[in-house]
Write a structure and sequence with these properties.
This protein is an alpha+beta fold and 281 residues long. 35% of the residues lie in helices and 17% in strands. The chain is built from eleven helices and twelve strands. The chain has helices at residues 23-27, 58-71, 83-92, 102-112, 151-162, 178-186, 197-202, 205-209, 236-244, 250-259, 272-279, and strands at 2-3, 5-6, 74-75, 97-100, 115-120, 127-132, 142-145, 171-174, 192-196, 211-216, 225-228, 264-266. Strands 1-4-11-5-12 form a five-stranded antiparallel sheet, sandwiched between helices. A five-stranded mixed sheet has the order 8-7-9-6-10, sandwiched between helices. Helix 2 (58-71) packs antiparallel against helix 10. The longest helix has 14 residues, at 58-71.
Length: 281
């Protein structure tokens, strides 16, 4: 998720709802631009890899509204369905707050000076290595992975090494998302697949019954986090306080419940070093 500062500030009404379903409520106090139209709604951008948050979900809009109201600053919501497009957009443009997957977090810190400020408590990015149920894995496996540009791929390689699985000569098929990974394995296009733990948790029982988990990461060092750009260094503490105090505010707690999170907890730059080690930076 990413936020871009809107130069024109306004206060979101206290009774504002989801701007997608109640745009008049949310935007009635928004400033008009030079043409008299409503200024762009402040922006949050959600990575497509986060299965718990649809980029078009009311929960995402509700979080955007909550942050605006408490920060007193306009933020424009620009959902993206593809995390690679999102990552490049952040690297190429002026965004101020991002909710980043672990791999992107490293890119944003290195290339744009973003600093981690908060993460969902107890939520970790892990990988399950799956095969078709009842089918032996060949010595030289074909492996399906969403992409090698997510930490899920690196964790999958780590699991295979830990379990003594052969990587020499293994071939990789990058299929774009984690559901396609499971599909490739089920259709016999791959012998093994690297599946994101959130994707696995969301699969129906019948699909899971056709797969077997042959290895699983339990590293615990990878997770999504909110990050703030260097241009907003003076707002880092405020943003961290808003996010990490949501569970103490009835309005914030409702947003968290919709997002399936218990609370956010503070983090800092110290969380980046374990990620760098994991992917060999």
């Amino acid at each position: 998720m990413t936020f871009r500062y809107s130069a024109k500030q306004y206060v979101v009404p206290a009774d504002a709802g989801n701007p997608e379903t109640h745009p008049t409520e949310v935007l009635r106090n928004a400033p008009a631009d030079s043409d008299g139209d409503i200024a762009p709604f402040p922006f949050v951008l959600l990575p497509g890899s986060v299965s718990a948050w649809s980029v078009h979900s009311s929960s995402a809009f509700a979080l955007n509204t909550y942050l605006q109201r408490n920060l007193g600053t306009g933020i424009h919501f620009e959902p993206q369905d593809n995390f690679l497009v999102e990552r490049q957009a952040v690297l190429d443009d002026s965004f101020h707050v991002v909710y980043a997957n672990p791999y992107s977090a490293l890119c944003f810190a290195r290339d744009r000076g973003f600093v981690p400020v908060a993460r969902p408590a107890g939520v970790k990015d892990e990988t399950l290595v799956v095969a078709r149920a009842g089918v032996a894995v060949p010595d030289v496996p074909r492996i399906a992975s969403a992409t090698d540009k997510l930490i899920i791929h690196d964790l999958g390689l780590q699991v295979m090494r830990r379990e003594g699985m052969n990587l020499d000569g293994a071939s990789f098929k990058f299929v774009g998302n984690h559901l396609n990974v499971a599909k490739a394995v089920l259709q016999g296009e791959a012998d093994l697949g690297f599946v994101f733990n959130e994707t696995w948790a969301g699969m129906n029982a019948s699909t899971k019954s056709e797969l077997q988990v042959v290895g699983e990461s339990r590293d615990g060092t990878a997770f999504h986090c909110f990050m703030v750009a260097r241009e907003w260094a003076d707002k880092r503490e405020a943003i961290q306080g808003i996010l990490c105090g949501m569970h103490l505010d009835p309005s914030g707690l409702r947003v968290l419940e919709d997002l399936k999170f218990e609370r956010f907890e503070p983090v800092g730059e110290e969380v980046l070093a374990p990620l760098e080690k994991l992917i060999g930076v």
